[in-house]
Amino acid sequence: MTQNASGSPDGGAGRIDRSRPNIILIIADDLGYGDLGCHGNSVVETPHIDRLYNQSTRFTRFYGGPMCSPSRASLMTGRYHYRTGVVDTYIGRSMMYPDETTLAQVLSTQGYRTGIFGKWHLGDNFPMRPQDQGFDETLVHRGGGIGQPGDTPGNTYFDPTLQRNGTAEQQNGYCTDIFTENATDFISESDEQPAFACIATNAPHTPLQVEDRYIEPYRERGLNEQTARVYAMVSNLDENLGKLLSALERQKIADNTIVIFTSDHGMAGDRYNAGLRGSKGDVYEGGIRVPFFIRWPNQIEADREEDQIAHFIDVLPTLADITGASVSPDIPLDGTSLRPILLDEQNHLQERELFLQMHRGDEPTLYENCAVVTQQYKLINGRKLFNLQRDSGEQTNIATQNAPLVSTLRDSYESWFDEMEDARDFEPPKIVVGAPEENPTLLTRQDWLGPDRSGWSDEDVGYWDVKISHPGKYDVTVEFTEINAISDIAVRIGDDHRSKSIAGGRSSCTFESFDLTEGTEKFEAWLTTEVPGKYEPKVEKTGVKYMHVVRDSE
What we know:
Layout: E1 22-28, H1 47-54, E2 57-59, E3 62-63, H2 68-77, H3 103-108, E4 113-118, E5 137-140, E6 161-164, E7 167-170, H4 175-188, E8 195-200, H5 212-219, H6 225-250, E9 257-263, H7 285-288, E10 289-290, E11 292-295, E12 304-306, E13 310-311, H8 315-323, H9 339-342, E14 354-357, E15 370-373, E16 377-380, E17 384-387, H10 403-424, E18 431-433, E19 441-444, E20 463-468, E21 472-479, E22 487-493, E23 496-502, E24 508-516, E25 519-531, E26 538-542, E27 546-551
Parallel strand pairs: 1-8, 1-9, 2-12, 3-13, 4-5, 4-8, 18-20
Antiparallel strand pairs: 2-11, 3-10, 5-6, 6-7, 9-11, 14-15, 15-16, 16-17, 19-27, 20-25, 21-24, 21-27, 22-23, 22-25, 25-26
Helix pairs in contact: 4-6, 5-6
């Protein structure tokens, strides 16, 4: 492969350091393998993504994970998500252990400025926020998505309130436009310092909010409203990618910038999926296979297909290897560097097995929604075996006639499962309250726990496990859905249980001067309301929306 150290075509402007290229990682949310024109979709318009596809080495068998947070944890750490504390996507199980080492932290050792723009979904509170995990510049929404219970109340994809370096900031415009524009500015301001920018769009995740001008062309083609809106959001994403690539050309840094385009998992919904079976949440190919294009002009071969199996766990070791960044030997990475096959140093990596699993709950269950993938075969839930080289649509189960192989793959999976279980015991990390890095602390339904897997509706009740970092006086303000009748609001922190009677029309209540000591405590809050019934009043205990905890620093 030709090695070109001259940089931009004119050999002059632009930041040129082949040992430390700029890195732009674009990860869409809920974008399916079949949602791109370059993957055979004849309806969606993705000219800029298709151009990137043609300029890249693209992996035809690259795996994310079944759901959002687990995929992102693996991407950020180079480790299977069960090692990181991330078990689910909400209700306290999408928070990543703060002692994990992220891609941003690794690249920082090589002098990179690091920024994330969009979706984090690995913890909204200190010490799990992106700015606590190695990112110098952050502009993100809270929770798992704009408009979800963990996010700013009333937020939409238009003019959203986002968190810039931990401070709420009102934005103007459409979310994907905002994330891309800020990332572009971040890269252009890096001067001689290399930049790593993660553009993690929440598109095309629900709610499917986008301007009508993007939707109408797909409505006119007779698509149902959901698909028309998804494709409209993909078109907007494509448009933003085009603007980003053009900006790199104008700044004469395109030749020394690695651009990666991918998605967190398979599509949500029912539409064209390039012949793959399943969708988001499944471990069939349609739920876990994602696009993965990587472009580095004059370094990584363009317009090349690579059928080597790969996974998000490989991204950190690959970029560390390319940039010369060091990873502590004390961190057991599960991924492997793809540099040898990207830079034509060898044709294939050593034969290996990849493991994928995720389901709702506080901890995984053996053989529930799991897969073992090899270069040729895939075993699902320990029972169904497919030859992916001949049957990418996973239509023919060949387990019966390949019993020895099934047994071998089951043994590999069980060994992996035992190792994951021993790594952290699947205990969720604690939110730190009272630290100067985040005071006040906002607790939301995104991260509360509950014995009955409390959900997000107004009727659900959960609690937060927190670590109090500083002793002292704390005030607690509880926010809830506006009530119409006299109710009781209660707060319990450890053994301190308080309640107040509040009139209708209220949506918040403050409790002052909790005397808290260092250590872990259980934070709870709930409403109790008498609801008229047919025969007698019924007392309902319902949840709250948010809890603001403020430490008196005086």
